[in-house]
Structures are given as structure tokens and as C-alpha cells.
Write a structure and sequence with these properties.
single chain, Enolase-like, domain 1, four-stranded antiparallel sheet, 22% strand, 40% helix, globular, alpha/beta
Length: 369
């Protein structure tokens, strides 16, 4: 099996409502969808959702890297040779993880279809039966976040990830408002997205939050401040999760050596796809660190890829892949049985892409062959 052509589509996924985090507000979610076709006629789908604050890539730059650097070099290669393909891509360009993830995901999809097995059979086989879905609360006023949480509890959700990171006082008010509204039985995870900047500011917040009963606090300090995470972890009983601070093997090695986190949030867009994400999971497992699969608010394609990784490893104890639930229109048909997700036995990613919708959402397109 050889790669015959790679089609690259830059799209705008329409959000039901704006997605707001500490560093940006997204009215719609830009994404790049890759269609990989082999000489035997099989098609694999991949996705890149770059973010300047997380992956260090822009949408325009990622599109250019795919069009001019990665895709041309991979024509004629066997998509089943994951290790070799990643080495080729690494030799061509340093970093660029979201661009590489798009290629990687498409390779796993088309390989699964070739072998007639789900992608999770290529990464260890099925371990988890299902995962509960955590609803993500965008930054808003405390009362608005509490009201939305209450509505979601009525829909069956039992856990929330709260986006904060504006300032300590207002963030603490947001967290307290949600906890008071939903009660003590609902799980609350808080994601600061680097918004509290350093350990001293974070400790101000934690003095107010110690008794609220948080599942964990995620990335309160700047991504490269591993020592700051070490200091915070030593001074609080709230479990600490690193997200933006872990991208590849180098960061994971430092986190393990310094015992800088209780949990790590592995994202395919940060690590470069399914294959390198599994390497990070193996490292974390050997160090006794729990993992979560997170996302950059991806379509059914990228979200399904993340789920296949999470379902195949026991070290993954939570998932945060809710992009398709946030879109008014999606290119794929990943199915959620809220508040759970259960994968099918369909080969590859198990996602059918509606190419009519894809064409409708596409703003620019090219084909490399």
C-alpha cells in the first residue's frame, strides 16, 4: 500500500456559541482536514488544529508546511510504516506537531481500513469500554457559568472542566459559584491555561480553593515553568495536571524526573499524532503518572483519533474530547451518547466524512500527488 495523493482543506467549523479561554475567544474553530488516498483506492482522514499558544503553529503556517514540506515527501510511501514516516517528517522540519498529527491520523485511519480493524487495535487493543464525557465551561461571569453547569447536570453530565485564567479574584468567584450550584457530588476540574502565570499568583488562588473539592488544577503557570509546577505541587493537596507544559519526550522526561505533576494532559496536536502520543503515555505509565487525552476542539476526525488512543491504554483515566458537541455543523459523524462516549467496531477511525459539508466549510484547498 502506497500513498497516491494528499488533499489539504482549510476549513472553519461553526461553533454553537463562542469558545472562551484565558488567552483567546473563538467565534468559530479553524481546522485543516487532510484526505489521504492510496494507490489501492482507500481513503484516510486526518486533522490539524494548530494554536499559537499551545502548539506554536499558525493556521497559515501549518497549511504551508503540509502543502510544501510534508505531503510532497510522503507520496509513494507506505502509510503503515508509522515509525519511519515520523522519522522522515522529523528530518524534514523541527516540531510542527499539528501538521504532523494530520498526516499521522490519516495514516492510522487508512491502515485500519486496510486491515479491517479499528484504530485502537493498532495501539494496544480495546481496554476501556466507555468513558464519561466532561462538559467544558467557557469563561463567563460566575452566575452564567453556574447556570450552564446546572443545565448540564439536568442533561446527565457528572463532571465539568472550568476554563478560568483571567484574574485570581474573579476566577475564584467563578469556581465557587459553580460548586455551590451543582453540589459536592459533581466533579469539577479547573483549567487555567497558563493564566495565573507563576507559582506565587497560583498559591493565592489555592488558599481559597483547598476546601472546594477539586478533582485537579490544570496548567496554572506558563508552559515552560516546570519548576513552578514543582513548587505548587509541593504546597497543595489539590492534584496538579500539566497540559501546555508537556509536548514531547523532552518535557515528559523533565516532568517525571522532577515529579512536577500528578497527571498529564496528552493532546495529539501537541505531540504530533497518535504514534508519538502513545510513546508519551508509555513514559507516564512507567512513572506512575495518570493521563488524560485532551483536544484543541477538533472535529469528529481529530476527536475520534484521540478516543482511539485513550480507549487502548489503562493509564488514561479521563478524556476531554467534546469538539463535535460544540459545533452547529461537523464534517463527520462521531457519535456521543451523552454523558458517555462508546466507540464502534468500524475500521480505522470509524468516522464517515461528509464531503459535501467539507466542501461547504472549506476556505482554501490543494491536492498534492
Amino acid at each position: 500500500m502506497k500513498i497516491k495523493s494528499i488533499e489539504i482543506n482549510c476549513i472553519e467549523l461553526p461553533l454553537i456559541e463562542p469558545f472562551i479561554v484565558s488567552y483567546a475567544t473563538y467565534p468559530n474553530m479553524p481546522s485543516i482536514i487532510v484526505k489521504m488516498t492510496t494507490e489501492c483506492g482507500l481513503v484516510g482522514w486526518g486533522e490539524a488544529v494548530p494554536d499559537e499558544h499551545v502548539t506554536g503553529e499558525t493556521l497559515e503556517g501549518t497549511y504551508a508546511v503540509l502543502q510544501h514540506t510534508l505531503a510532497p515527501a510522503l507520496i509513494g510511501e507506505n502509510p503503515m510504516n508509522f515509525e519511519q514516516l515520523h522519522q522522515m517528517m522529523d528530518n524534514l522540519i523541527y516540531s510542527a506537531p499539528a501538521a504532523k498529527a494530520a498526516i499521522d491520523i490519516a495514516c492510522f485511519d487508512v491502515t485500519g481500513k486496510k486491515l479491517q480493524v479499528p484504530a485502537y487495535q493498532l495501539t494496544g487493543g480495546r481496554y476501556h469500554k466507555k468513558f464519561p464525557i466532561t462538559h467544558v465551561l467557557s469563561i463567563a461571569e460566575p452566575q452564567a457559568m453556574a447556570d450552564e453547569a446546572a443545565r448540564r447536570v439536568e442533561m446527565g453530565y457528572r463532571s465539568f472542566k472550568m476554563k478560568v485564567g483571567r484574574d485570581v479574584a474573579s476566577d475564584v468567584a467563578r469556581i465557587k459559584a459553580v460548586r455551590e450550584r451543582v453540589g459536592d457530588e459533581i466533579a469539577i476540574r479547573v483549567d487555567v491555561n497558563q493564566g495565573w502565570v507563576n507559582s506565587s499568583t497560583t498559591m493565592q488562588a489555592l488558599r481559597e480553593l483547598e476546601k472546594i473539592g477539586l478533582d485537579w488544577l490544570e496548567q496554572p503557570v506558563r508552559a515552560d515553568d516546570i519548576d513552578g509546577m514543582v513548587e505548587i505541587k509541593e504546597k497543595t493537596t489539590i492534584p496538579m495536571m500539566i497540559d501546555e507544559g508537556v509536548r514531547g519526550v523532552c518535557e515528559m522526561r523533565e516532568i517525571i524526573a522532577k515529579r512536577a505533576a500528578d497527571k498529564v494532559n496528552i493532546k495529539l496536536m501537541k505531540s504530533g499524532g497518535i504514534y508519538p502520543a502513545m510513546k508519551l503515555a508509555h513514559m507516564a505509565e512507567m512513572a506512575g503518572i495518570e493521563c488524560q487525552i485532551g483536544s484543541m476542539v477538533e472535529s469528529s476526525v481529530g476527536s475520534a483519533a484521540g478516543f482511539h488512543v485513550a480507549f487502548s491504554k489503562k493509564v488514561f483515566t479521563s478524556v476531554e474530547l467534546t469538539g463535535p458537541l460544540k459545533f452547529s455543523k461537523d464534517i463527520g459523524n462521531l457519535h456521543y451518547d451523552v454523558p458517555f462516549i462508546e466507540l464502534t467496531e468500524k475500521p480505522g477511525l470509524g468516522v464517515d466524512v461528509d464531503e459535501v459539508v467539507l466542501a461547504e466549510l472549506t476556505t482554501i484547498k490543494c491536492v498534492v500527488n
